[in-house]
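Session log. Operator J.P. requested a structure for one protein chain; no other inputs attached. Running the standard single-chain path with token output.
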Amino acid sequence: MKPIYKGIVSHIQNMSINDGEGLRTTVFLKGCDLRCKWCHNPETFLSGPQLEWIHNRCIGCGICLEHCPKKALSLNNGVIHRNNIDCISCGECVENCYAGAHHRIGEIYTVDQLSNKLEQDITIYKVSDGGVTISGGEPMVQYDFVLRLVKKLKEKHINVCIQTNLNAPWEKYQEL
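Structure written below.
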């Protein structure tokens, strides 16, 4: 049986013009082996999915408190506090927040799921001489997933760029 490779994606940015030639889709992966103070994507440091609360979206209704099965949320002076020890990252707060103040950072994709999603813009890539940029975090933290994703995209004749900190063994870059 062929193994199914999965990766954790922080977010996907369509129509990007700053991450390579032409119009691109930038895939931001979770996980990084460095902690640079100037990082533009600190939400990608941790490898797994995370939950965040966005203060200026909260309307203070408290519905998230009612739906948290572990009672890991509390509301003090208009600010939601999450007890990360009790929180099981189930996402009930995300699913039930009317205002979208609770947000999940990190979705799990298989190589096929992500490549099919990226292939939807293949016409845009071809017309603009663009493609897909894999960024992060640090893509090499999810090397097995990235290697298979790059191979799949190349089979579909999609240009691929990788933004990396070059903090992995050189043999891995050669294989990519």
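Operator note: The chain has a mean pLDDT of 93.
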